[in-house]
Write a structure and sequence with these properties.
Pfam families: Smr. By secondary structure, the protein is of the alpha+beta class. It contains 8 helices and 4 strands, in the order ααααβαβαααββ. It has a domain of 95 residues: Ribosomal Protein S8, Chain: A, domain 1 (2-Layer Sandwich). Helix content is 35%, strand content 11%. A 4-stranded mixed beta sheet has the order 1-2-4-3, with helices on one face. The protein starts with 10 loop residues before the first helix and ends with a strand.
């Protein structure tokens, strides 16, 4: 790209420049030398210790994520497994935990499963809910610098899997599995009780 030559100054611009420049005094040469850029410092002699400091530090390997727990032990026969996945299961009882706190929901779940086990039920449906949709879509909550202290959505749903591994509940249950869409999908679980 070529630069266009500057246009010549008009008479009034020349007069203005002359008046402006008449009050300017040249700099003192000694002071001008002090304003010049200093020479960059020379690099210090290289030593093994200095070279070691400049190497990048080794990063520790990130811990591997554990596989998600699979609570349902597969039935011994394929037909039972197939019926469970397709939602063609006879449900003996239902428990809806909507609106309960995690502590209250755990107590209700334990009492419900104990009653169902005493009555000889085989398959029960536990509805935990999917969690608040509005919170799940709020992207700022998942940023590491976000100060949002609200719990993540689906508190009961996430707590359910932990509860099912506790000894008092595990003693009653043979396994569990997410429910089919007709029975609540991601917001519900089939619980298979021990005989």
């Amino acid at each position: 790209m070529t630069r266009r030559p500057p246009r010549p100054l008009r008479a009034d611009e020349r007069e203005l420049w002359r008046r402006f420049a008449s009050g300017v005094k040249p700099l003192d040469p000694d002071r001008l030398k002090a304003l010049e850029a200093p020479e960059p410092p020379s690099a210090p002699p290289s030593s093994p210790a200095r070279a070691m400091d400049q190497r990048p530090l080794p990063m520790p390997e990130a811990p591997r994520a554990a596989p998600p727990p699979s609570g349902m032990r597969r039935p011994t026969d394929r037909s039972s497994d197939k019926r469970l996945r397709r939602g063609r299961v006879e449900i003996d009882a239902r428990l809806d935990l909507h609106g309960l706190t995690a502590q209250a929901a755990r107590g209700e779940l334990l009492a419900f499963l104990a009653r169902a086990h005493r009555r000889g039920f085989h398959t029960v449906l536990v509805i935990t809910g999917k969690g608040a949709r509005g919170r799940a879509l709020d992207d700022s909550r998942f940023e590491p610098w976000s100060l949002d202290a609200r719990p993540l959505p689906g508190v009961l749903r996430r707590a359910f899997e932990g509860w099912m591994r506790e000894p008092d509940l595990a003693a009653l249950c043979a396994g569990y599995s997410p429910a089919h869409a007709r029975h609540g999908g991601d917001g519900a679980f089939y619980v298979i009780l021990r005989r």
